[in-house]
Amino acid sequence: MNRRPADDSRLSFLLEFARHPMTVGAVTPSSTALAHAITAPIPRTGAPVVVELGAGTGAFTQVIQRLLDGRGHHIAVESNEQFARRLAARFPTVDVVAGNARQLPALLTRRGHLPADVIVSGLPWAAFPPAKQRDVLDAVVGSLSREGAFTTFAYAHLRWATPARRLRRSLEASFEEVVVGRTIWANIPPAFIYHCRRPAKAL
Fold first, then answer.
1. In the chain, what is the straight-line distance between the N-terminal and C-terminal CA atoms, in Å?
2. Contact between 155 and 190 (Cβ < 8 Å)
3. Which residues contact 162 (CB under 8 A, 6 or more apart)?
4. From first to last of its 203 residues, what are the pLDDT tens digits of the chain?
């Protein structure tokens, strides 16, 4: 019996989580509901530069492509080489980079797309040590325009854990506006989104 693409994505995600639990950070791809909520800042007109961090198997990638509908530039940064290869094959119009989010300003500069208008993150912040969490967030802030938007998510059951509280403090120090979205109960596990605007050190 042939497996559906969604089934293949779930299996691939589970296998990569077993191999690299500290970088994959989840056992299943994000839900469609979470993908639609986290991509809300992408403008419906113009030619925005949209960056996706931790693209995984493409749960957010697919929605971003639909929203852009051929407009602008979509750069997906994924540190897992297996995921990056699958993404490039599945989404040939996306500029898939097998690289580290900490190098984001340099990656965008080489492509002539600095600064970005929107950065969407699927990174597993709770799995990052403090130094890495800080470095990645600095790279995000250093890659956004003054009017840019950054969205990322956290799991509801880890909301009060030390890494999650550290991330919240860092976001509030890095952006003038940080809004916590509603809990997406349809996601496994349930998650909520940070909507961040007006980076403190914008380009």
1. 52
2. yes
3. none
4. 444 444 454 445 444 443 444 443 444 677 999 999 999 999 999 999 999 999 998 999 999 999 999 999 999 999 999 999 999 999 999 999 999 999 999 999 999 999 999 999 999 898 889 999 999 999 999 999 999 999 999 999 888 889 889 999 999 999 999 999 999 999 988 999 999 999 987 55
pTM recorded for the entire structure: 0.85
Find out whether 81 and 28 touch, Cβ atoms under 8 Å: no
SS3 assignment, position 118: strand
Indicate the angle between helix axes 130-141 and 104-111, nearest 10 degrees.
30
CA gap 67, 16 in Å, rounded: 28
For residues 55 and 77, give the distance between their C-alpha atoms in angstroms, rounded to a whole number. Answer: 6
Q: Which residue has the tokens 């349930």?
A: 190
